[in-house]
Specification:
Blueprint: H1 2-27, E1 77-83, H2 91-107, E2 113-119, H3 125-136, E3 141-144, H4 148-157, E4 163-165, E5 180-182, H5 187-200, E6 205-210, H6 214-230, E7 233-239, H7 246-254, E8 264-268, H8 271-277, E9 287-289, H9 300-303, E10 309-313, H10 315-318, H11 323-326, H12 337-357, E11 365-371, E12 374-379, E13 382-384, E14 387-392, E15 395-399, E16 401-406, E17 409-414
Parallel strand pairs: 1-2, 1-3, 3-4, 4-5, 6-7, 6-8, 8-9, 9-10
Antiparallel strand pairs: 10-16, 11-12, 13-14, 14-15, 16-17
Helix pairs in contact: 2-12, 3-4, 5-6
């Protein structure tokens, strides 16, 4: 009996030991030597993405760390505008260009290109340093140089980067770089266009009336050189100072034998002095002038003394209803006429530099080798606010609107071409 009881106790001890071992095993399972497959419905899922990523990341992403991938956007390319706004003598003129440039940029073209303004102290060393800085900061094009000296600096600095100067450099022969271009509001150029307009209208013998201002003398010289080049003849030159007593003197000079041969007169004079000479010119003799002789905002009474005079003007003033002009905001009321013209130049500067860097359906530039190794550019003319703009070599030239003063009001004879 004792034996049976002993055996029963031994068996109960073994059962208890086995149960205790099973409890420990369930609490701390041993790692399996072989990885167990994960059930599909337990696999972690990535965050929802509104747009697929542009490319896969090289680094693995842990579950739970995923972020929505934003669609990459193309950054607008930077066009540098370098102006001497900090200059005491040039600051106001430069600011007028800046305002027009920004007005045009805000109107269109900023989807792919934007501007960055650099404030220069002058049109010399400061301009050169800022040009290099703009290149280092990733500019795709540069607009700078509102004076002849500034344009000369820009021509020297320009290399592979498309560059537009807003004046003609001093030495055109040395500025013929592949990516350097220039445009200006030069009255010298307008005088040449007036000579062409008068010659186109059939006149061949001109008498020139000029006042004593240095600018008038320069305009006279530009007109004469173009007139002679075209084959015209200069039969007389009449100088006057603009004093009221000069009127009869102009009349006497025009009655002399040589002057009497003229079939047309060209006046190189400012508005006030031109008003003195005009009434004493022979009645019925056609008279031409540049925009220097006119104030586009003058009233009919002021203009009566200049009646029947033909002149060239920028579309900004001559064709205010033209679509290319109406697209842009006007400067503040009271802006001086000269600054208003510079504002218009700023508008065209934006349009031209866009054509240089990207091309457009109505104005494209592409490099084509015409002769030698130097690439040339083909440019489709555009209707600018400063004229009908075409490219001649590396110079943007402006065709202007031919106007005639009638009863004190300007009337368009021919649109810019």
């Amino acid at each position: 009996m004792r034996r049976i009881r002993s055996l029963m106790l031994a068996l109960l001890s073994c059962v208890a030991l086995i149960n205790a071992t099973n409890v420990v095993a369930q609490a701390s399972p041993l790692p399996s030597a072989k990885p167990q497959p994960v059930a599909p419905d337990t696999e972690p899922k990535p965050a929802i993405q509104s747009e697929p990523p542009a490319e896969k990341s090289a680094s693995p992403v842990k579950a739970g760390d995923e972020k929505p991938v934003e669609k990459p956007t193309e950054k607008a390319k930077n066009i540098a505008l370098i102006l001497p706004i900090s200059s005491k003598s040039l600051g106001k003129a430069a600011d007028a260009v800046r305002a027009g440039f920004i007005a045009a940029a805000e109107t269109g073209g900023r989807e792919k290109f934007t501007y960055r303004l650099y404030l220069a102290d002058d049109e010399g060393a400061s301009l050169a340093l800022l040009y290099r800085k703009a290149v280092q900061e990733g500019a795709v094009a540069v607009v700078a140089g509102i004076t002849r000296d500034g344009a000369t600096v820009v021509a020297r600095e320009s290399g592979y980067l498309p560059t537009l100067a807003l004046n003609a450099p001093a030495d055109l022969a040395k500025s013929d770089a592949n990516n350097f271009f220039h445009i200006s509001l030069s009255l010298d150029w307008e005088a040449r266009l007036v000579a062409r307009a008068a010659f186109q209208d059939g006149f061949r013998s001109v008498a020139i009336a000029v006042d004593s201002a240095a600018l008038s003398r320069r305009i006279q010289d530009a007109f004469e050189r173009e007139w002679v080049k075209l084959g015209g003849i200069i039969v007389a030159r009449v100088a006057f100072a603009g004093d009221p007593s000069d009127g009869p003197r102009v009349k006497t000079a025009m009655e002399k034998a040589d002057a009497a041969k003229a079939d047309v007169v060209f006046i190189a004079a400012e508005m006030q002095t031109a008003r003195v000479a005009r009434p004493y010119l022979p009645q019925g003799l056609p008279v031409y002038a540049t925009a220097q002789t006119f104030d586009p905002r003058a009233g009919a009474i002021e203009n009566l003394d200049l009646d029947s005079v033909r002149y060239l003007e920028v579309p900004w003033f001559a064709e205010p209803d033209h679509a290319a002009v109406m697209s842009y905001a006007r400067p503040p009321e009271g802006t001086p006429v000269d600054y208003d013209r510079l504002y218009a130049l700023g508008i065209d500067a934006w349009r031209l530099v866009l054509a240089l860097v990207q091309g457009a359906p109505s104005s494209t530039i592409s490099n084509v080798v015409i002769s030698g190794d130097r690439p040339r550019s083909n440019f489709v003319p555009i209707d600018g606010v400063t004229g009908r703009i075409a490219l001649d070599g590396n110079q943007f030239v402006r065709g202007l609107t031919l106007m005639e003063m009638r009863d004190g009001r300007p009337k368009m004879i021919r649109p810019a071409e």
